[in-house]
Structure formats: C-alpha cells, structure tokens
UniProtKB/TrEMBL annotation:
The keyword Lyase applies. Catalyzes the conversion of (8S)-3',8-cyclo-7,8-dihydroguanosine 5'-triphosphate to cyclic pyranopterin monophosphate (cPMP). This is cyclic pyranopterin monophosphate synthase. It comes from Pseudoxanthomonas kaohsiungensis. NCBIfam families: moaC, PRK09364.1. Coiled coil: none annotated. It catalyses: (8S)-3',8-cyclo-7,8-dihydroguanosine 5'-triphosphate = cyclic pyranopterin phosphate + diphosphate. One of its GO terms (molecular function) is cyclic pyranopterin monophosphate synthase activity. Pfam families: MoaC. Pathway: Cofactor biosynthesis; molybdopterin biosynthesis. The lineage of its organism: Bacteria, Pseudomonadati, Pseudomonadota, Gammaproteobacteria, Lysobacterales.
C-alpha cells in the first residue's frame, strides 16, 4: 500500500523522536531567495510631533540612520540569535523607514541570498531590531512607544512563494 504525504503542514525543526533539530538543507538546490518583513513603531502624539520637529534626531544621533545600521547588522547575525537558523551569505539587505500616518513609523527589511534555504528570519530580525533601535533612541521621550506588529510580507525562492515580491 502506498503512503501518502499529509497535506497538513508539519513542523520542520523536530527530528523523528520529536527533539529540536536543525533542518538538513544539504540536498536542496542553491537558488536565489528573498524575503521582506515589516515592523511598526507607534508613538504617542506628542512624541511623534517632537520627533518630526527634530528631523528624527536624538541626543544619541540620527535615529533612522542608526536603525538602518542596527537592522542590517542584526540581519547578518540572525544565525547567532535564532538557534536553528543557518548562517547565510547575504547578498543584500535593504531597510526602509517611513512615516505611516502622523504617529507611526513603518520599517521594512528586504534580505536577499543565493543559498539552499530562505531569508525570512533575516528579514524579520532586521525589521524588528531596527524597530528596537528606534525605541531605544526615543525612549527618553516616552515609554509608551509601542512596537509591532512584526510580520513577513513576502518571500520568493525555495519550495513556495508567499505574499508580495521580496
């Protein structure tokens, strides 16, 4: 009797005995892959107004410039932060930060690689660490700043594509 694969998605970071394990990607083809993730930073109205008036500059320096650098560095080190992520040769990381309405910054991170596994975690890490950096540089104005949601917007390459073009 032939066995059929279940159509229900299964967790991939567990071995046959249910123990945590890194996925073996050695049999996968090397392909171009990309992913885009976003995270939002929401400010109280007075804080947003103050940040806009200062050109997003804080006593520690340029908030956006610092967030871009931090997010890029974090994406490059994702494998050091997330236990079962593979170390990937990133071909590119792009972080864009723009106002979304009067009180909210929208941070997007796109990561690209040519490898055997995808870069979703790198994109998510880049976006969220950039958001954390904005919080860190703005927290002197208020601790009521809210981060999130953080989410994957899209990925390309590998078994299946998801969402918008990365």
């Amino acid at each position: 009797m032939a066995t059929r694969k279940s159509s229900i998605p299964q967790l991939t970071h567990l071995d046959a005995d249910g123990r945590p394990a890194m996925v073996d990607v050695s049999a996968k083809a090397v392909t171009a892959r990309s992913a885009t993730a976003a995270c939002r930073v929401k400010f109280p109205a007075a804080v947003a107004a103050q940040l806009r008036a200062s050109g997003l500059r804080a006593g520690k320096g340029g908030i956006l410039e610092t967030a871009v650098i931090a997010g890029t560095m974090a994406a490059k080190r994702t494998h050091e932060l997330i236990p079962f992520c593979h170390a990937l040769p990133l071909d590119g990381v792009r972080i864009a930060i723009d106002w979304h309405g009067e009180r909210e910054l929208r941070i997007e991170c796109t990561a690209r690689t040519t490898a055997r596994t995808g870069v979703e975690m790198e994109a998510l890490t880049g976006a969220t660490v950039a958001a954390l950096t904005v919080y860190d540089m703005s927290k002197a104005l208020s601790h009521a700043i809210v981060l999130g949601p953080a989410r994957l917007l899209g990925k390309r390459g590998g078994k299946r594509d998801f969402g918008r073009e990365g």
